[in-house]
């Protein structure tokens, strides 16, 4: 890759087709474009809606190539995630290969394929077509290290339920601090297969990129260094947000090009007064947990902005607000189905961030210096929460009870720590 000049180099990028995975690769593509590379993102037609929600300034700097995977309007609700990914592997490998061939004939041959690590089959496509294959890890080095040790047979679970495990480069980890797909055997076993599968051919990748940065994970990065020498290229966020807390002028707008209502609402609140609550684009809280969060927000009496995403069709009962909550708190808070999260986090009115600690949200909170209250749900979130509270010390983890529910009193206690 070093032999190619930036002006002539064409880079192809393949995200896993979910918004939380599209955004970091899009931001990295935008960064490449700012250095003179031609960046083309290839994705299935069914993900067009997610691209419409993505950063418009980044989209303006890259090329988009969509292909049909036979499910342009989305998959049937009864089709398993494993079947969806199997279909994407079969159709996507052919579509990406055909695109490389077409671009080559057009005189725009890509020098490499940068692919989400959840799509290890893309490495075979790249090498078959004689270009470099670069894997892009969207989780922190800490979590990657745990999975690597797990698939290589090293112990990652404590010997006792209340014990801890020592993993080089990481703090002592209890059972509740480890990725849920390793500790919880119930549920779809494909999740663990998917997460561990991203490392099955990583030894053959030409480069390994991680959406993290050295000042955050220098020690654990050294533990990952052999044999891959991973390059930490994060945080993969819009450059305007990296650094000091920037004013929002002309940064975020809704589909009509106007600042969103929630930002106007924040403008009328005093500095550091607002509790911002969001649990990401995938998690669906149980009705009981929703009741407890709602109760804590009412009890604490402080202004709040709560993003309550409409549940997916197959998430029955998830994210349901308690009856009458919006009416009862209309003078205190604002509930919205979506908000421009980075613009909210840089706003002077926001005092703390109640979050599931997905990696994108964690990076956004860290880079903007907003104290976080972690209520992890699954996947890498428990590990991210541990790091936020005990290593990076920019937040606390709300303690769940024996039923795995964070009660309103506990959440209110955490909120008061930052008030």
UniProtKB/TrEMBL annotation:
One of its GO terms (molecular function) is quercetin 3-O-glucosyltransferase activity. Its EC number is 2.4.1.-. The keyword ATP-binding does not apply. It comes from the Eukaryota. Keywords: Glycosyltransferase, Transferase. GO terms for cellular component: cytoplasm. It holds the Pfam family UDPGT. It is an enzyme of class 2 (transferase). Belongs to the UDP-glycosyltransferase family. This is Glycosyltransferase. It comes from Amborella trichopoda.
């Amino acid at each position: 890759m070093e032999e190619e000049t930036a002006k002539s180099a064409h880079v192809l990028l393949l995200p896993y087709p979910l918004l939380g995975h599209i955004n970091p690769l899009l931001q990295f593509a935008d960064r490449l474009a700012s250095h003179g590379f031609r960046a083309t993102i290839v994705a299935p037609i069914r993900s067009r809606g997610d691209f419409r929600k993505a950063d418009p300034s980044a989209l303006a700097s890259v090329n988009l190539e969509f292909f049909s995977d036979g499910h342009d309007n989305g998959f049937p609700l009864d089709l398993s995630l494993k079947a969806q990914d199997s279909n994407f592997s079969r159709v996507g490998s052919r579509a990406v290969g055909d695109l490389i061939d077409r671009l080559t004939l057009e005189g725009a041959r890509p020098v490499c394929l940068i692919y989400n690590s959840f799509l290890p089959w893309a490495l075979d496509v790249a090498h078959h077509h004689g270009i470099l294959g670069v894997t892009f890890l969207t989780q922190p080095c800490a979590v990657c290290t745990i999975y690597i040790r797990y698939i290589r047979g090293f112990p990652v679970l404590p010997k006792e339920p209340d014990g801890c495990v020592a993993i080089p480069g990481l703090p002592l980890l209890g059972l509740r601090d480890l990725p849920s797909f390793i500790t919880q055997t119930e549920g779809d076993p494909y999740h663990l297969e998917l997460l561990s599968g991203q490392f099955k051919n990583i030894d053959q990748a030409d480069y390994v990129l991680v959406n993290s940065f050295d000042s955050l994970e220098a020690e654990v990065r050294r533990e990952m260094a052999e044999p891959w020498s991973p390059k930490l290229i994060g945080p993969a966020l819009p450059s305007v947000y990296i650094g000091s807390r920037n004013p929002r002028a002309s940064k975020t707008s809704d589909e009509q090009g106007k600042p969103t209502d929630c930002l106007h609402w924040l403008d009328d609140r005093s500095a550091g007064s607002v509790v911002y609550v969001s649990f990401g684009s995938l998690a669906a809280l149980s009705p009981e947990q929703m009741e407890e969060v709602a109760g804590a927000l009412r009890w604490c009496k402080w202004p709040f902005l709560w993003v309550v995403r409409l549940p997916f069709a197959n998430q029955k009962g998830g994210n349901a607000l308690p009856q009458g909550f919006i009416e009862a708190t209309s003078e205190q808070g604002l509930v919205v189905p979506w908000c421009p999260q980075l613009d909210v986090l840089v706003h002077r009115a926001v005092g703390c961030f109640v979050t599931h600690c997905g990696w994108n949200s964690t990076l956004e909170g860290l880079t903007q210096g907003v104290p976080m209250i972690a209520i992890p749900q699954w996947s890498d979130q428990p590990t991210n929460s541990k790091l936020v509270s005990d290593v990076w010390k920019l937040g606390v983890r709300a303690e769940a009870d024996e039923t795995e529910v964070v009660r309103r009193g506990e959440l209110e206690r955490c909120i008061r720590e930052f008030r």
